[in-house]
């Protein structure tokens, strides 16, 4: 397929792999965090690690919107879905995420709740228009990429006076999460997590631009390369990061120039600013409360805010005690360090959110990469 | 389709009427529906005897038998409908034993209020599919349920066929060293269906690959009677079938992504929807395993058939106690092609 296959070409991958191997220094290791779940997926889907030298370690970051959603918010959504007359619409990945006591939206659906999977916010609007006697709630999640479509839906609902449409807003922000990771004691003080450089987000950067990342590169002295989601994008970006680290540079470079500019999508940014404002704090699974890391709907659009329209009981959310999603999301542990990985917790019966989405580190590792683990197990035994 | 005109006997109004409860009650209305629709369309002496069963002679040898329920939504899709699918699906399941399918039965569960015009269209395409496959629909059943108790129309078909002497095809026959072949492009049917789902409106030229494969199988069995495994990768796509075979035969499977035929349109639709074409359903394709020495001969025989023109060798069987299906990606890396977990859901980012 044009403009896609070119970025998955095996010959090109060999050339890049040779370049990377030639530039990697033998006296050091390279710890690179890919923030985005999109990168995690591509890395596992195409087996990118097989083409990188052993000294290059990819650490899977928290950029999977499904994975970082705290259990309490899933509980809230299940509660909303169970209210009389409500149709809860959401993106497909969320349906299987377990909340407290193993309850999920998929199970709520089986119990009789009207939960519908949609591909876009406009589908949710259409469902609202088609069912004027029902309350349609869109369960909105995602980083800066999925925020503009939610803003459009809210504006559209207001313009069309769709009184039965509202949004349960869980949009979160990438830069705040990266700062949180870099400020964590494991990285900053203890140095127990080696984190040398970042593969910057692709689609998020298409919206916010590459400029917001200049601050970390400068302040934390970590190079950032904005990378596309195709496997060759990832390899080219790894090469660029290795070169920066070898040169002792810490800059923001943009590999994904076919989509990302320094300023980003100014129109989308304006749209988001019109509808949303910062929450002073929001809970992230794995990271805990992160200040100014999420968005809420502005008072001007309060009529379309499900949190205002429906009373929802506060939920602490009970995590499965053995689940290591939190540590995995911070890069402290690998999926295989978790005791329940691949035993109690599998994609069929996920205990933690990282095992649900194909962008989650555990699911990607289990689904695409577990042959590597058993290979090393065998070699070790 | 041309049908012999019958004398005028106040026929059913297939243009405007809908199925009502009397059409399944065992009374005159039901008899009329059976006569004017099913018998006329399926048109064979065994069915016309109007017994509660079909009685026929069987040739010597072993028989293959299968049954399948069809609950597809939507009922009509580019390249076919639930009727043609109900014939192809069961014919193919019989054929995957290396057998020549002979007879089908068909059970209809119809929701009250279902348009007779739609039912006629569906039954006629069943008849057409059966004729093309050379099988007869020799017995059947019609039930009507109250509105809300079914989703329009469900069809169950059962099929029987004869396994030629010397043929022993089974999913536990794969052996290390075997070559793996597919008969054509993967994922066409699933994408054609998805394109018509109400919440996924996208335009595509892709038609379902829905077809009876018994002709192709006959050719293959004639060329290589010792075929080890045949399977049609329907629900769960190629990935599910390969995992089933690996498990049943206790082997590992290695495939090469670059060798798997996938249409650019299917690739494109899957990219947009965040799906993996290896998990998307097919209804007119098969996967075959045979000894390495037979592979080229089998490939040649497949390519001679109109339904196997794009056949390809995509990998081989290896020894692996973990029974993994592994794939060399287009990039040159490795990955597992795992069982599908839950439903295949689109990615959101």
Question: What would your notes on this structure say?
Answer:
- The complex is a heterodimer of chains A (381) and B (349).
- Chain A is an alpha/beta fold.
- Chain A has helices spanning 10-23, 37-45, 65-68, 71-82, 105-110, 121-130, 147-159, 174-183, 185-188, 203-208, 214-220, 231-247, 266-275, 306-309, 325-329, 361-380, and strands at residues 30-36, 56-63, 86-90, 114-117, 135-142, 165-171, 197-200, 224-226, 252-254, 276-278, 281-284, 288-291, 295-297.
- In chain A, the strands form four sheets. Chain A has a five-stranded parallel sheet with strand order 2-1-7-8-9, with helices on both faces. In chain A, strands 4-3-5-6 form a four-stranded parallel sheet, with helices on both faces.
- Chain B has nine helices and 13 strands.
- Chain B has helices spanning 28-42, 45-48, 82-95, 116-133, 188-194, 214-223, 237-249, 264-273, 295-303, and strands at residues 62-70, 76-77, 80-81, 100-111, 136-145, 153-163, 179-182, 229-231, 252-256, 287-290, 312-318, 325-328, 334-336.
- In chain B, the strands form three sheets. Chain B has a seven-stranded mixed sheet with strand order 8-10-7-11-9-12-13. Chain B has a four-stranded mixed sheet with strand order 1-6-4-5. In chain B, strands 2-3 form a two-stranded antiparallel sheet.
- The model of chain B has no long low-confidence stretch (mean pLDDT 91).
- The interface between A and B is large, with 58 and 29 residues.
